[in-house]
Specification:
231 residues, mainly alpha, 11 helices, elongated
Length: 231
Amino acid sequence: MFGVLRAYILIALWQARPGLAGYDMSDAITFCFITQAFIAPMQLFGGGLTLPERIRSGDIALDLVRPASLQLWTLAEDLGRAAYLFLVRGIPPMLVGAALFGIRVPTSPGQWLAFLTGLAIGVVVSFGWRYLMALSVCWLVDDRGVAVASMVLTTFFSGMMVPLHLFPGRLGELALSLPWAAMVQLPTDLYLGKAPALETFAFQALWAAILLGLGALATRAIRHKVVIQGG
């Protein structure tokens, strides 16, 4: 229902402003249902990681002494979750959108490969951001405020609500330069064939590396904090 409501809003907008942001009506409808399919795999509304509960319960102390990187182990778990949710909660809304409104379908294997690659890197960017938010519980105890702030930032700056190309002037440039754009807007543009693949992958990979690097530093910080507090 959320996807259908979004689709009708975008249809009304594009009927009033044909060709807005370089999209035609079919592009806008496709954008709606592709981004709808990203909600669960990308965890755009937050969550998806069990770290906050494990930090509050103290089980994180056991995780930190396991013979495996906490960050990489959590990433592997999250990638499996994302792949499953894309199949069971991502593709069905796309099929519903295709049946009700009709959507564009990439016409070449290269375009499909670019889309799937962008989607995979976008999931890693999403994980990097959510991992940092989860570790903040070590210092904040309660993550509800951080979770709400993260959800607002993600839904507004990712392209989840409307294409970021609609944002005016410097706000649009800023939105397209932030990590959230790598989660939704850029993979969708790859699907529509409106973004150069190599430049898009480079931008996404840069943000993935930055966020994972910050996550590695934060993991070292919480290891020190757990030792200081006695486990």
